[in-house]
Amino acid sequence: MKPFLLLATRSEDEAADDEYAGFLAAGGLLPEQLHRVRLEAAPMPPITLADYSGVIVGGSPFNASDADETKSAVQHRVEGELAGLLDDVVAQDFPFLGACYGIGLLTSYLDGVVDDTWSEVAGPIVVSLTPEGSADQLFGRITPTFEAFVGHKEACTVLPTGAMLLATGEDCPVQAFRIGRNVYATQFHPELTQAGILTRLRVYHDNGYFEPDAYDEVIAAIDASTVTEPATIMKAFVERFGTA
């Protein structure tokens, strides 16, 4: 099988390595089957899509909707490089899964609207599939309503033209959509487990994903959650698009 490509943007090694491990586990992949490029560390190398089974963009401390003047030089570079890659991904309908920051990038690239209207506190939420989601080649493999982990300051407010809404939530109406047949984006994290989100909360404790005095409440909600279905989406992505 050709490897999948994970384009990562977390500068904190603990969070970056945990994210990589999460995608490996959720997808049932070996390290040689998931090539990671840390874009925050160095410019994107030349990428030939035909060398890969699919592309994954995970979460990030970056926000696609931040005002240009507040973005660092690294964020501007990363977003420019990813926009260039998305030119090819969208044109070829190449297998793509953007999670959290990835949905913001894809929405912005396709001239949808991303802003802070539907931000969600870190922790578990309930996600519901739309009829189109239930019929989808990936999402159709999971239960119509399930728990997932989120934590984001921005979200898709207006879908890009032509996007198919696959999943929604009470506090954030756009939890997943598809462009074409093979380009996917989720607001929730398909790779996160309870242990994984606890690592993220420790690393990003002071980054504004929850109020400091709500920490114990956030942890209690995570401990009481049952998050199993999102990983099925990642597994289905690997099984559907893994190519020789």
Automatic annotation (TrEMBL):
Keyword Mitochondrion recorded: no
UniProt superkingdom: Bacteria
Record domain Glutamine amidotransferase: where: 49-193
Keywords from the named record: Glutamine amidotransferase, Ligase, Transferase
Keyword Ligase appears in the UniProt entry: yes
Transmembrane segments: none
Pfam families associated with the record: GATase
GO molecular function annotation: GMP synthase (glutamine-hydrolyzing) activity; transferase activity
EC numbers for this chain: 6.3.5.2
A Gene Ontology cellular-component term: cytosol
PANTHER family: GLUTAMINE AMIDOTRANSFERASE YLR126C-RELATED
Record NCBIfam families: PRK07567.1
Protein name in the entry: Glutamine amidotransferase
Species whose genome carries this gene: Cryobacterium zongtaii
